[in-house]
Specification:
Length: 573
């Protein structure tokens, strides 16, 4: 008996897990139960945690990912052992490549059954080590609470990423020590922020101040660190034009006069050429992915490079920087701003001519885009969605041609409203990820842009969306092909379309089968009216846009090539 004359009831490991989640401020879990995780599911029945039952464990991982990207909080997914755990691996790899903070909780067979090829036993910890920041196997119930808390700490610290906590079934059921109640045994790590070298900050400011043709290249790290304000201030005080990576889109308002677009394989030709002519690349929160650089030896050949990244391993991994700063983007940009403001002579001179030169080079692209607005196709579809949804629109894209069109033709002016799978390029990402975004922001319009191939990969999550009444609108750009693969076959394999034509369901009928609204849109139909109709429907609505089967995304830089080998639109395309 304790001092209050109340009999102490030992907490179970599962209860410790639930209390750790509550103490971390978790509101939503995305998961799918099974035998080895059943004690945890029994425990959450008595806790104020909102569990979302997905229809496939990969959906749980992507939903947690979308939630984390939209909120900058740690997303949580749950699965059982064996196939449940193996099904989340793609979601973990997706989050790892894009630096998304997640905690995945998996059940494991009991300690006595481990290592004996027991039913639904897999070495989840060993399997996930390459795709996580850290993986835990917790075999002592007294360590569960602290381990769960530590997992969150690791997931969100430094360069964010996914963390796995694998818990044997009998550990979930076992009693915990009384001293562990209420988190008394947990002590948060008090790691000092790594020092940022003032000379490096001053050198970065000096290079920016002296450059005549600079380009600020902002990546996902700006959003992760909440450095949007600092980025805008640096651009405005220096006059330097800003480009973003694919994952950096919406970190800088596209309506801003200093925004020039995004570079890379399918980025604007004018932006790629500006980088090619630049004398300084000021890169912050990005990792010089091969889709940006092409042939690294020919990337920005005349430029000095300032590279700011939270992960020291990224500095010099692809492009050797003139000045490398391993630090959080917001902290580093504040430091650069302090040095930049300290000496008026470091302010950029003559940058207006450089910005005007880039703007002039963009006029042919703008004319082509304006012409496409009057035609049935991706530009008109994106315009109609943006107009109908309004300024609070949040866009989640899948992977393929539609992903590039969305990035090219939507105008993102509200921060962190563009969600996509970049590093891993995971088809099937959009539908479950949009669920996470919708749970995070239930009052904001959420639109999915998907291809007919990618949409079918996690189509089962329509049932989850229906059950929770999520107001998600879906635009399928349906060309009857695996469009991006077909495009590569067109350019590099002599139109030998091997296994890229793909069929699918009648999407309006599919929507009806799930109790949702759906509609096909064909060439000649009123695109704007169809989008307004979708916006007026309650809950999830699917629009099946039948587009040109052989439409290509332009421009295109072949893999490993340079900007000088860019492919622009052919005559008649």
């Amino acid at each position: 008996m304790n001092s209050l004359n109340v009999e102490y009831k030992p907490r179970t490991g599962s209860e410790a897990m639930c209390e750790a989640l509550l103490d971390e401020g978790v509101e939503h879990l995305f998961g799918y139960p099974g035998g080895a995780i059943m004690p945890f599911y029994d425990a959450i029945y008595d806790y104020p945690l909102k569990h979302v039952l997905v229809r496939h464990e990969q959906g749980a991982a992507h939903a947690a990912d979308g939630y984390a990207r939209a909120t900058n909080r740690v997303g949580v997914c749950v699965a059982t052992s064996g196939p449940g755990a193996t099904n989340i691996v793609t979601g973990l790899a997706t989050a790892q490549m894009d630096s998304v903070p997640m905690v995945a909780v998996t059940g494991q067979v009991g300690r006595g059954a481990m290592g004996k090829d027991s039913f639904q036993e897999t070495n989840v910890m060993g399997m996930t080590l390459p795709f996580t920041k850290h993986s835990f196997l917790v075999e002592d119930p007294d360590e569960l609470y602290e381990t769960m808390r530590r997992a969150f700490e690791i997931a969100r610290s430094g360069r964010p990423g996914p963390v796995l906590v694998d818990v044997p079934k009998d550990v979930q059921q076992a009693a915990c020590a009384a001293s562990n109640g209420g988190g008394a045994g947990y002590r948060r790590l008090r790691e000092a922020e790594p020092p940022v070298s003032p000379p490096a900050l001053e050198a970065a400011a000096t290079l920016l101040g002296r450059a005549k043709r600079p380009v600020i290249l902002a990546g996902h790290g700006v959003t992760l660190s909440g450095a949007e304000k600092e980025l805008r201030l640096l651009a405005e005080r220096s006059g330097a034009p800003v480009s973003t990576t694919l994952l950096g889109i919406s970190a800088f308002p596209e309506a801003h006069p200093l925004y020039i677009g995004w570079p890379g394989m399918h980025g604007q030709a004018s932006v790629n050429r500006a980088i090619d002519k630049a004398d300084l690349i000021f890169a912050v929160g990005m990792r010089f992915d091969d889709r940006i650089t092409g042939d690294p030896s020919r990337f920005a050949p005349n430029a000095k490079v300032v590279h700011i990244d939270a992960d020291p391993a990224e500095l010099g991994k692809v492009i050797k920087p003139t000045v490398g700063i391993a630090a959080d983007a917001r902290i580093a940009l504040r430091g650069v701003l302090e040095h930049f403001d300290a000496d008026p002579e470091k302010r950029l001179q003559g940058c207006a001519d450089w910005v005007a030169e880039i703007s002039e080079s963009q006029k042919p692209e703008q004319r082509r885009e304006d012409k496409a607005r009057g035609e049935y196709g991706p530009v008109r579809i994106m315009d109609a969605i943006r107009e109908a949804a309004g300024p609070d629109l949040r866009v989640v894209t899948d992977v393929g041609q539609h992903q590039m069109w969305a990035a090219q033709f939507f105008k993102f002016n509200k921060h962190n409203t563009h969600i996509t799978s970049g590093g891993l390029g995971t088809m099937g990402f959009s539908l479950p990820a949009a669920m996470g975004v919708a749970f995070a922001y239930p009052d904001d319009p959420v639109w999915i842009i998907a291809g007919d191939g990618s949409f079918q990969m996690n189509i089962q999550e329509l049932a989850t969306i229906r059950d929770f009444g999520l107001n998600i609108k879906v635009a399928i750009l349906n060309n009857g092909y695996l469009g991006m693969v077909r495009q590569w076959q067109h350019f590099f394999h002599k139109d030998r379309y091997s296994e890229t034509p793909i069929t699918g369901p009648e999407y309006p009928q599919l929507a009806a089968a799930y109790g949702l609204a759906g509609r096909a849109v064909n060439p000649g139909d009123d695109v704007e009216e169809a989008v307004r109709w979708a916006e007026d429907q309650n809950g999830c609505t699917i629009l099946d846009f039948r587009i040109d089967p052989e439409a290509n995304v332009y421009p295109m830089i072949p893999s490993g090539a340079s900007v000088n080998e860019i492919i622009e639109a052919h005559e008649g395309e």
